[in-house]
Amino acid sequence: MGRPRRTSSLGEDIRGDTSAPGISTMSTSHAQRVASRSRRRALSKPRPASKSRVRSFFTWYREISYRKTWINPLAAMALVAGAYSLNPTPENPLHACIFLSYPEPPDPTSHAPTETQYGKGMNDFLFVLFYTFFFSFTREFLMQQVLRPLAIWCGIGKKSKVSRFMEQTYTAIYFSVFGPFGLYVMSRTPIWYFNTTAFYERYPHYTHTADFKAYYLLQAAYWSQQAIVLMLQLEKPRKDFRELVLHHIVTLSLIGLSYRFHFTWIGVAVFVTHDISDFFLATSKTLNYLDHPFTGPYFAFFIFVWIYMRHYINLKVIWSILTEFETVGVWELNWVTQVYKCRIAQVIAGSLLGSLQAVNLFWLWLILKIAWRYAVTNIAQDERSDDEDEEESSESIEADSPKPEAPCGDERDIKKKI
C-alpha cells in the first residue's frame, strides 16, 4: 500500500527540463482506446479452427505492444542482434550497428598515444540508429515496469504526477550515468577542466579514442530518441513547448555539426555542463513530486549548479569562441584537408550556443520565480502546462490508464487461442 502524501513541496513544477514525454505517458485518443477494447474482445472470444492463427497472433501483438510500449524497440534490437549472430565479424554490415566503426592504429601525437583511434564515416549513423532503439526500449521498460509501480508505492495518485515522476526519474538515471561518463572522457583530454584554449590548439580532431567516440554517439542517440518522441507529442504541450523544441533543434544541430566538422572537444564540454545540471534538475523535480522534506534545500543547491554549469561555464565557452577561436591554432577553410576553423564556423558555433544560452536564461528566470514564490510569497501555481492539474484534480492513476490496462477475459485463454 502506498503511503499518504500531501501536495508538492514547492507548490508547482520546476521548469527547465529538456526531456520529452515517454510514449507510455502520452495521452491516448478515444479511437485508440476503442480499438484496444475491440482487439481484446476479439482475442477473448473462441475462434473457429478455420481462422488463421497468424491473424490472431498479429492482433495479439498489436494489443500487447500498445500496452507495453517497450516491446517494439526490443523486437527491432533482437532482429539486428540475431542477424549479426549469424556472422559475428566486422565483415557483417550489422557490426556497425552494435560496435564502433573505423578503427585506426594509435596516433603517437595524440593525447592518448597508445590507444586505438576511431575515425568517422557513414556507418556511425547505423550506430546512432541502433542505440536510438536501445534508449527507446530502456526508457519505456523502466518507466512502465519499474517506475510506475514505484510511483504508486510512494503514494502518488494523480495521473499527471505519476507521468512526470516516471519521466524525471528516468532522466535522473540516465544523467547519473552520462554525467560522470562525460567527466571521465573530459579528464582524459587536454580540455580538463573546461580548458577552453585546448579546444583549438590541436584542431582538427579527426579521430577519437573508443570512450570518446562512444560517449559522443550515444549522446547523439539519446537526443535523437528524445526528438522523435517530441515530434509525436501532438496534444496539449506544456507552456514552454516552443522553447523545448528550440532546445532540441539547437542541441541536435550542435551534435551533428560539431561531429562532422571536428569540433567535438567543444561538444564534450557543453554536454557535461548540461548533463550535470540536468541530473540535479531531474532529482529536484522527483523530490518535489514525492513531497520530500529535503526538497527546499536541494532545490536551492540545484539553482547553484544550474547557474554555474549552464551559465558561468557555457558563457566561458561562448567567450572563447569570440576571443580564442581565431587566435589559437589554425585559421583556414580547406575542404580537401577537412579544416573548417574559419569565420563562418565561428559565427555558426557562436549563434547556436548563444541560442542555447538564451533558452537556458529563459528557464532560469522561471526557476527563480518558483524559488521566490516558495521562499517569500508561498504562492502555489503550476506553470508547467496549461491547466493540466486543474483538469485532472479528481483523476487518479487507477482511474484511466490505458497503457497498462489488463485485457478482457482470461489472459491465459487468449494466449491459448493464438
Task: Please characterize this protein's 3D structure.
The structure is a single chain. The two termini are 36 Å apart. The chain has helices spanning 30-44, 53-67, 71-85, 95-98, 123-153, 159-187, 198-201, 210-232, 241-260, 264-289, 295-323, 343-377, 388-391, 411-417; strands spanning 103-104, 117-118, 208-209, 332-334, 339-341. The chain has one domain. The protein has 14 helices and five strands. A hairpin with a 4-residue loop joins β4 and β5 (339-341). Mean pLDDT is 83; it is low at 1-7 and 379-418. The relative contact order is 0.16. α3 packs across α5 (123-153). The strands form two sheets. Strands 1-2-3 form a three-stranded antiparallel sheet. Helix content is 61%, strand content 3%. It is mainly α and 418 residues long.
Keywords:
three-stranded antiparallel beta sheet, disordered N terminus, 3% strand, 61% helix, 418 residues, two-stranded antiparallel ribbon, mainly alpha
Q: How many whole angstroms does the radius of gyration measure? A: 24 Å
Estimate percent helicity.
55-70%
The helix-strand sequence is HHHHEEHHHEHHHHEEHHH
Low-confidence stretches: 1-7, 379-418
| Number of structural domains | 1
**N-C termini distance:** 36 Å
Profile the largest sheet: 3 strands, antiparallel
Q: β content, as a range? A: under 5%
**Count of alpha/pi helices:** 14
> In one word, what is the shape?
globular
Order of strands across the widest beta sheet? Answer: 1-2-3
What would you call the structural class? Answer: mainly alpha
Overall average residue pLDDT = 83
